[in-house]
Design a protein that fits this description.
This protein is an alpha+beta fold and 102 residues long. The protein contains two helices and six strands. Helix content is 25%, strand content 39%. A four-stranded antiparallel sheet has the order 2-5-1-6, covered by helices on one side. The two termini are 23 Å apart. The protein has a single domain, classed as Alpha-Beta Plaits (2-Layer Sandwich).
Length: 102
């Protein structure tokens, strides 16, 4: 038996923990069926984010979805959050099993 894979897009969003709920709500409104969120630490142009205080940390939000949905979410995040919040978004082409979930 051969596994049956389907192409989807993985949208990864790394942002301030304080806006996680807003980003997730926006993503769901724009067509995401679900997401996975984990704590993230790092540094960049906005300084170091060590996460010692939960709301000062970062989260990594991963959304598996169709390419058009990922594009719509990424565009919305860019226009709504990039100017005000520390946020990074990137897209990856992935192959998934159980494609009906995404």
């Amino acid at each position: 038996m051969v596994a049956s894979y389907t192409r989807r897009t993985l949208l990864t969003v790394i942002c301030e923990a304080s806006i996680e709920a807003r980003v997730v709500a926006d993503a769901r409104r724009l067509g995401a069926h679900g997401y996975t969120a984990t704590e993230a630490r790092g540094g960049g142009q906005h300084g170091e984010r060590d996460g010692h205080w939960p709301m000062s940390g970062n989260v990594r939000i991963e959304i598996l979805c169709e390419a058009a949905v990922a594009d719509a979410i990424a565009l919305h995040l860019q226009t709504s959050y990039f100017a005000t919040y520390a946020m990074v978004c990137y897209l990856s082409d992935v192959s998934v099993l159980r494609s009906n979930k995404f």
